Amino acid sequence: MKLAYWMYAGPAHIGTLRIASSFKNVHAIMHAPLGDDYFNVMRSMLERDRDFTPVTASIVDRHVLARGSQEKVINNIARKDKEEKPDLIVLTPTCTSSILQEDLSNFVKRASFESQADIILADVNHYRVNELEASDRTLEQIISFYLNKAKNDNSLKTHKTLKPSVNIIGVTSLGFHHHHDLVELKRLFEDLNIDVNQVLPDNTLVDNLKTLPQAWFNCVPYREIGLMSAKLLKKEFNMPFIDIAPIGLMNIETFAKEIQKILTKNNIFQDYTAYLDTQSKYISQSAWFSRSIDCQNLIGKTAVVFGDTTHAAAITKILHEEMGIHVIWSGTYCIHDSVWFKQEIEKYCDQVIITDDHELIGNLIAKTEPNAIFGTQMERHIGKRLNIPCGVISSPVHIQNFPLSYKPFIGYEGTNQIADLIYNSFTMGMEDHLLELFGGHDKIKNAVEPSSLENKNELFWSFEAQQELSRIPRFIRGKVKKNTEKFALDNNYSEINLNVMYEAKEKISG
Amino acid sequence: MTLNINQNFTFECETGNYHTFCPISCVSWLYQKIEDSFFLVIGTKTCGYFLQNAMGVMIFAEPRYAMAELEEGDISAQLNDYNELKRLCIQIKKDRNPSVIFWIGTCTTEIIKMDLEGIAPKLEAEIDIPIVVARANGLDYAFTQGEDTVLAAMSQRCPYKNKNLSSNTNAIHKPLIIFGSLPESISKQLTLELSKYNITISGWLPSAKYTELPVIQEGYYVVGVNPFLSRTATTLMRRRKTKLIGAPFPIGPDGTRAWIEKICSVFNIVPLGLEERENKIWNNLKDYLKLIKGKSVFFMGDNLLEISLARFLIRCGMTVYEIGIPYMDKRYQGAELALLQKTCKEMKIRVPKIVEKPDNYNQLDRIRDLQPDLVITGMAHANPLEARGINTKWSVEFTFASIHGFTNAKDILELVTRPLRRNTNLKSSHNSIFTNTY
């Protein structure tokens, strides 16, 4: 057993659901107890989805515990098949079903005889993998299933497209700024004169998976989701892949150069150098911004970085190489990918941290006292407690990480966004220090308690009433106080006790 | 009584495929209510993920709750449950020093049959902190029923004798205990309300501190404030030999009046001025009533407050198409059902269909056909319904807002009318933003 207050990556089934619900016309059925379908709430709230999340539960209750699911799962699959007519149903095990050890694969087999939809059982073990590993695996599983299917009915499309083309793999629902990144990524490929063959799994029909081999290569923008699929396609069809996140000017350049190499191997000679130069100079403002006089203030500033591997590594590089900021330590909670992470950023920071324990991170931040933190929502709150500014650069996500306005991390517009994020974090920190040095802003009069009707009439607040008043949230306390006093005066009460307070509340509308 | 009710009501039971919160969510309000407690949820990452996301910003405020996250070794019994729990509880004692540790059993502890009730007394003796076990799992319960399992377990811990022997000697009636967790200011309001009719409350379950649990002796009277507390009621009656006052719940001015009247009638007190009190409250609600009169509402059902809320809204002049509810205890809610029936008769509308263990998919079908003016539902359906032009109110807010007593009737209507008031404010919204597909 482990005492835990907070986790950076969710349980395995969340990963599977993120993949399944990202495809178009794919339905997931969870084998789970009542209340485990919290995924639907998150998607509906965080992404403000207008559609019903295509996830239902086949409920595990006392009866299932006693007698097994029997026909229940099969009936639920058959029912969804009729109601929603999905192309694919993904039966999703949860922590509960993994200890019940029911033969879910048998249910899948039996249900497939009857249903129009394809049915697969997500191959994830709750106790071995987390959300990110599970999503990586589920995506690979679905791709593999449909490639085999296409092979068997000879519908697989293996001839390459005329123009160089790419599959983008790993854009999912509830991903950190994924949908903004996708727009930017498509723009980048257009500039590089490369067609986008398929985007996975985002809003794609499973029927399109048979055309995957037509692309010249694959692009995995986020290491956490999609690497397994890219490796599968490499093995099966010898398709090269690029696992570089084009986040930051350096990464974008390496990204483009890698593509150039792939094209060269296919006897297409492209030189992106001129393009990269113009973009860095005119489209991305971040290189010039770092040279501008204002940014000299950032020299000698310290930062720490924490997040998933993709974002933590990219931001560490940007801080060190592109903005000249001293990164004291940089870390990730993706323990399973720590080797790559260490290699990637060792030279850009003093120390590499691999952990999924938020208390350890909190203590480290407190100990190293950076000028700014770049982390997840958790680090933002640690920063609040310690009075250190924080820019959020990675999931776990929060409703604030689904902005309405265009905020990519990837590509040239991404470099602008990131530069703003970094710079704003530091200036706010500077302002705070200056204020402290000079003793704060001019004092605002009566800042604590909004004025009451004090001098007109003597109003006495009883002890209980005062206590009750102090329980009311501060931001409306003043209004309540004023309204109650007005009410007391209007009704000629000289003392405000609990009775008067409640009476006031009842009578004053709105 | 139950039979009589059955003849006039239509009770249906569907498939139980509906969205609700896991009952472990009760931790989020109970740890705040019981100030010296610590809640240890013994479960998996799934439980932790739910709490972490459902509790939102509260999670960053160093709450007095934690997960005992089960690992593979715990599941396959390679690790010893007793030693593992001992290790964690000693750490909790060292870091937080609570007066009580609640163990919340989950689906996983049920399935692997971890003997929490057996381990707790031994460990309690060894580390010298009371350990209360509540099985608030999703196999058996929905959302607010979590509180019921905790209070049922706590009612066993209430002292039998008062140490100072000084309590309620001046009360004119037998001791009365109220059960149900309410914010401090609402329990104050209800206490004050009852004191107007010379009724003294001997204690609340739960109290603000575990160390201040009320004395409960044989023959005491108990009354519930919430409709989801049937196990607690049963435990108080059977184990503690108390007498349950079966009353409607003090939600809405009509409910509050009926609740007080029932308590008074048990103690042979005539509640003078109660009717005028109720009328005054209705009078204060006029502006809200204008907004909802004649409008229709559909409860999808997820928190067991549905019967009481529907009864109040019918009294407000609304039509109720369907009352979805996770679980319906016809005995514990008997008086509330009777009041619902009476209200329907007086308001001259048909008694709405009560759907236990609803099926959300079928309900969406019915909603599409009925096009109600308001759907009270969980967050999983709220945005998709809004996108189809159906007004929704998030049901969970009713469990977290102040809705009890005369004083807070306004708050219920404030919630109910919010989407309708939003509609009048958003004049520029075009129908073109809505979709028609379900």
TrEMBL record, chain A:
GO MF entries: 4 iron, 4 sulfur cluster binding; ATP binding; metal ion binding; oxidoreductase activity, acting on iron-sulfur proteins as donors; oxidoreductase activity, acting on the CH-CH group of donors, iron-sulfur protein as acceptor
Active-site feature positions: D294 (proton donor)
Pathway assignment: Porphyrin-containing compound metabolism; chlorophyll biosynthesis (light-independent)
Catalytic activity: chlorophyllide a + oxidized 2[4Fe-4S]-[ferredoxin] + 2 ADP + 2 phosphate = protochlorophyllide a + reduced 2[4Fe-4S]-[ferredoxin] + 2 ATP + 2 H2O
Entry keyword set: 4Fe-4S, ATP-binding, Chlorophyll biosynthesis, Iron, Iron-sulfur, Metal-binding, Nucleotide-binding, Oxidoreductase, Photosynthesis, Plastid
EC class name: oxidoreductase
Residues annotated as binding [4Fe-4S] cluster: D36
Binding site for substrate: G429, M430
Subunit structure: Protochlorophyllide reductase is composed of three subunits; ChlL, ChlN and ChlB. Forms a heterotetramer of two ChlB and two ChlN subunits.
The protein's name: Light-independent protochlorophyllide reductase subunit B
Organism: Lympha mucosa
Source lineage: Eukaryota, Rhodophyta, Florideophyceae, Nemaliophycidae, Batrachospermales
From TrEMBL, chain B:
Top EC class of this enzyme: oxidoreductase
NCBIfam families assigned: DPOR_bchN, PRK02842.1
Name recorded for this polypeptide: Light-independent protochlorophyllide reductase subunit N
InterPro entries, per the entry: LIPOR_BchN/ChlN (IPR050293), Nase/OxRdtase_comp1 (IPR000510), Protochl_reductN (IPR005970)
Binding site for [4Fe-4S] cluster: C22, C47, C107
Cofactor comment text: Binds 1 [4Fe-4S] cluster per heterodimer. The cluster is bound at the heterodimer interface by residues from both subunits.
Keyword terms of this UniProt record: 4Fe-4S, ATP-binding, Chlorophyll biosynthesis, Iron, Iron-sulfur, Metal-binding, Nucleotide-binding, Oxidoreductase, Photosynthesis, Plastid
GO-annotated molecular function: 4 iron, 4 sulfur cluster binding; ATP binding; metal ion binding; oxidoreductase activity, acting on iron-sulfur proteins as donors; oxidoreductase activity, acting on the CH-CH group of donors, iron-sulfur protein as acceptor
Species, as recorded: Lympha mucosa
